[in-house]
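User: Hi! I'm a student and our assignment asks us to look at how structure tokens line up with a sequence. Could you show me two examples?

Assistant: Happy to help. In each example below, the sequence comes first and the structure tokens follow. Example one:
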Amino acid sequence: MGTYYHPTALQAQAIAARSYAYWHIHHGSAINNSNQFQVFVPFKFESLPPATDPNNTTDPCASSNLNANQRLICNVVAPRHYVSYPPEDDLPAFTEFTGDVFQRTVNGSQPYLRAVDDPISTTCDANNYGHLRGMSQEGASRWGRGNQCSSGPGDQPWSVRFERADQILVHYYTGVHIRDANNANAVLTPNERWNPLHIQWGTPNNQPPILYHGQVYHLPIQIQNTGIADWTCGYPDSSFSLRIYWWKAGYGEQPGDGSVNVCGTPKGDPSPTLTLTLQNIPNWGRGDYTLRLDIYVTSAQGNRRFSQNGWPMYSVPVCVDGPCLKFLPLVLRDYAPPPPPPTITPSPTATRTRTPTPTPSRTHTRTPTPTATPRCAGLPPDPAGYRCNDTLPRTWIAATTPTGITADDQVVTIPIGFTFYFYGAPFTAVNVSSNGNLQFTTSNTTYSNTCLPDGAMGQMIAPFWDDLNPAQGGAVYYRLTGSPPYRVLTVEWRNVPHYPAIGAATFEVQLEERTNDIYLLYQDVDFGDPSYNNGASASVGIQAAQSPFTPIGLRYSCNEEGLQAGRSVRIFPHSVGCSGQALANSGLENGPPGWPWQQFSSQNYQLISTRRPHTGSYSAWLGGYNHAHEGISQGVLLPERTTEARLALWWYLDTDEGNTRAYDKLHVFLQSPPGQDISPHVQIDNTWPRNSWQELRLNFPNLSWWANGPVWVVITATTDASLPTSFFVDDLSFVPLCTAYAPSPGPTATALPGATLIAPLPTPIRAPLGPWRGRSARPLAGLSPLPR
């Protein structure tokens, strides 16, 4: 129960259950507490995980040994709020509630038990369960979460979320009030109320896109009159309208141009789909704005807004002109300027060693092939955390712009159209090969595929790396669709034959801007020859390679029939969940170059080293020479409900400096795009304990503002002009923690005892390193000099 429902929904359920009980007590009737009409749960409380018997049997909520779920239940039942009807009376209402409802509740025996539309309950786990009257328990959880899935791993974001329990209750119970039994049954809700039900943003996850000055946006929206009276226009109230207001920190609120008439909306009923026009955005510069929605009444007795009487406006954070903290691509590794696109140099024509026994006149005969079994569920993530899913459908996008590929074994550079992050590095251009692959750091024309990863192919996406020949038919196209930050680059190989001219295949790659996800889609992979059909002679997957280091990659298939028409494969970076490790390669055991960690060294040194690991074989070695400025960073996408996080790592320092004044320093901090510090840094320096491993644990308690967006874990080291210090870092952990409460007012960080908080360091982590280069290190105490 406590782990299943959203806390706001639990509070609404507690109020409904109390009202239901009060109604029966007032009428002297028995309360059915069976599984079907459960109101009291005398045996469930003790079993909430982890099962705990309260040590105060007289007042269980006063017990000192309650677990988190039990405390949550006690918190939501503590206020003695209840639902009353009629509005002018303080009598409790007969607030029936049901398990779940699909799309619409049904009429009950009371005037406030009217059928109401529940548009959030139309997909995912929505189902008719129970008598369907009054509040839907699962629906309440959906509104509290702002998600079409009531709980569990499902994630289908909805465009509206109710922040308060009374918003949920007046949605399901028509024309009621919420009262406080602890305060002489005082009314807690105003007479005039409204709720948004659905906002159609027109984006893939129905969340606000980036808005731009000078543009006009038409926003379909549906709302509900949740007050005690119809919105009747006449005298004294001549009009009711839904209006927009703009707000930005430091500027205050300004009325917007958009409004729409909602006269005649009955209580309890939804409005028709309205269209709000967003235009003439206040010129407050780029960045984070808030779009506020409110009902405005023009009246002979004085104009008013519903929010002036205590009912909440509906506020939507939006990004204007970008970039903004919560609207940049969701998996970012650093904000260095992207490297220039690789230079394409003509390669000599390869001497083919295959014997092309078929001829161009060969008859293209399709032969039935067995259905290829999905395989992602059996593939472990690669060392950088990339995973795949091949069980979900994906819409095909027809590419329209020719890449310019006209020959066999040809590579051409095209613009991506946005910054795409792949294995932690930013790219704005990609090299398209006629042989069914995209290369980011190489321009290899080889037609002879190998099983991934292949060290000669650099950072590569291979939807169908094989010996293809567009010179004999078909073409390769690309297309950019969508608007920031929801753009998608599609590269399509259309009707391209296998060498020399066998059959034809059609497949494509889609790169998503907002998620950095990769989609491989297959429309036709039957060449009419079992030697090549369905990937029988192709390599499929992704990889990263940087000489001289061991390449890594996610191999989907290699020279086997693992593909089929209609299949789509989503390949996505390391994902983060609440209360779980958010860092990939947290122990640095992938070895150099340490993907997905990004490195910076003022001397271009490789920082992932075997010199002094805490556990395993590798750690990060920072410093060790004079005038050093080095660091490592990794981007993390915080979950939607993140409110705080825990960061832990092990550090070791070895120094020639004294221990009375700080000269050489290690900084540990979080950073948000584009280089804004979330909190003060924690500094470890040469005055701290040396020659032994120490653990650092930090708490970042106010991360709500950055929830559902990227942050970086950053560790940097600086040394002065003499007596160098070596810092070693290993076994890192970053764990986001999530609740459902409103964002905290501002970002701070708390250092545990012994940590020093100092001013921010101005220079962020920058670009990936080149190959390993040795460094001369000063002899450290008790050690002979070792080359780096």
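Example two works the same way, sequence first and then tokens:
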Amino acid sequence: MKDKLLWFVGFEKQKYTIALSGLNTEPSTAYQNAALDLLTTYNVPESPISQALMSNLWPSYINPLLAQPSNYFATNPSLGYSYNGVIKLDYNINVKHHLSGRWFGGQGSQTAPTGGSAALATASSNLNYYFEKAPIHVYNYAVTLNSVLTPRMTNQLLAGVNYFNQVFRDAVANYDTHTNAQLFLSPDTPVTPKFFGAPNIRISGFEQIGITPPEGRNDITGMLADVISYNVGKHQLRFGGEYRQAHLNEFYFFHSLGKFIFDGTQGPWYDATTQTCAASDTNVCSLADFLSGRVSNSAIDVGDAERKIVVNALDFFGSDSWQVTPKLNVNLGLRWDYFGPLHNGSKDIAVFIPGRGIQIQGAGLDGIFKKNLKDFSPRVGFAYQPSSRGDVVVRGGFGIYFDQINVNPFMDVRPPNNADGVQDNPAGPSPVSIYTANTAGQTSYTWQPGQYIFNPVQLCPSGNVAIDPTCGSSVFDVYSVNQNFHTAYFYNYNLNVQKSFANGAAVWQIGYVGSGGRRLSVLLNINQPIDSAGTLPFAGQYPNFGAINQLNSLGTSNYNSLQSTLRLRAWHGISSEFGYTWSHSLDEITAYRGVIPFDSYNLKADYGNSDFDVRHTFTGSISWEVPGSSHGPKALTHGWVVTSVLSFHGGPPGDQVRPGIDIIGDPFAGVSHSFFKHPDGTAGVQWINPNSFSLTPSCGQITSDGRCYGTLRRNQVYGPGFKDVDLGVSKRFDLTERMKLNIKAEMFNLFNTINYASGYGPFGYGSGVISDTIGDWNGAPGLGPGEAFATVLSAKITF
């Protein structure tokens, strides 16, 4: 309808194949023969389970590899595609009311390495069988009504719905280990295609397999918001509120197929006295353990961990932008937030409460934590122009901001022990039992074909076999949420000065930015042993419970920084922006997932540099519209643009928790940080000097269970920094008045700088060697940030 309706439709299709490379050690035929020779020497039979798994869970292309470390150089590509569409509708009802609608739909899939993420407690694999396959569907709907109610008052009403669905699985997961390999896990482990595929098998010295079990999430979130704006005199007032409700279906079957570790210490080829292996290559002993079926330790989650939950959120706010004088503007605001605890009507959310055992939400327990109705957050800010020229502006602000915690810390924690979330407690209509011992109560054993390794699901809500005989002799790790759990909040404060030069051609800003976090989420093992004998504090009341992970709101953080930016606008066709930040961040625990403090009874012992603490950061972007030349054809001499992006920053530290070792010297003494490559193919950089650390720490301070704190503080040693310069050159061709062609060449990591992996995990204090790059370490090898020099050519037609 003319002058009434405007519409836009867009569609995009992407399909990619990214060449990857990686180096690791695989159990080749030569390695298997060496391990089988050990079995023959010690008259140990090969396990038929292991034989079947070896033949079917590893790809055949590893068989010809040599029997030596780093025998596999991988070239398996990452694959993916996406289809995305958007529809925009804008309709003028009349001069006072305007209606707009938006729809976005996207679906796709990628098959790629996961990256060695500490936060997700995942490993990565160079075998394409164990790339992660992750199909995704996303749809978003939004309708907005903007209305002019009076000359001074407007209203915006917004309604929206977002749909998200994504599943994760190993790329190849079609082998039925139960039927074909006679690997019987538990009577309650489903024998269906959803649960086919490799268990998580970790053979020391080799790349692990079975990395991604059946996992995924489906959620539908609806929201309704309304904002009223009202101008009166020197005041611009805004009032509003928003209601959100999310329906989530979480199905993270973590360790549902079992985790089995073979470390080379279980067979007669290992001398426990001297702690040596009969083979010169310890990998052979580890593989011999696997081929003979000798499990060092294991774990499994048995039961239905799928949960459908509802989460509500509500907020109201009011603000006033007050033009006190022509030079001074003050902003005042107040906000109230409510973030409700997750719940459902199925009565299958189980939470441990000290003194009460495991309780069920909706069956005697209103919520898994108490509702918080006092989350008020005031904000104040100002902008002041001290001079009449208007070329200097002083700005400052202070505010309190509440942060809604996501579902992961409640339902997919992935801790170092086995208490993974409220979905994995042994109680309720859908109990889950987590076992770390077999049916005979053994943590180390030899698996046998056709014999169940683990017990079926057992109910144990009381944690005491004397009360619940169904607990049996099993010991369960369980999950708890502190009943005084509170919403995290942050103090944010800043003060900066902005100065313009040459009538705005250049703008420089410098200022202080800081924040303080309070009531941050921290996971504690409240059943940590209280003595070196391993006595558990809850053993008397809950003898069938082992680790008890409790989600608490006890963490604090502090961030302080000096931040500066410089912007140049259109000087001889050059526009640029540069930024520098000098900062320091501290906390007890940074990761909200997968981490428990060194000592759960002394959280402050872990207070130190944050995991992401980077002291110096410099960024820059430059764009130059090259002036056209009067010589030569205009089609070739005009329309050129050169761009560049610069990124330099220091490295983050290397721990998540206190490591429990001593520092006895300068970590970087005698270390050149030069890249090396040995004849056996191993390569990397000696980042720290291992002789500067003692892995047997002094015991000036010890934990309740007798572990020594050591003198090395959490995150005291920093990893490598990052350097990257990118360059782009583009040329525009005017094909017709309405049609244009843009050809672009982009060069990433122009100087081919080696950016080593940094953060938690890339180097250990025993060796101090980093043998990976940052992109590959984070699951984006080849084309990830800081990876090897690469060029991308593209062409785009607009009409």
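Here is something you could point out in your write-up. The radius of gyration is 30 Å.
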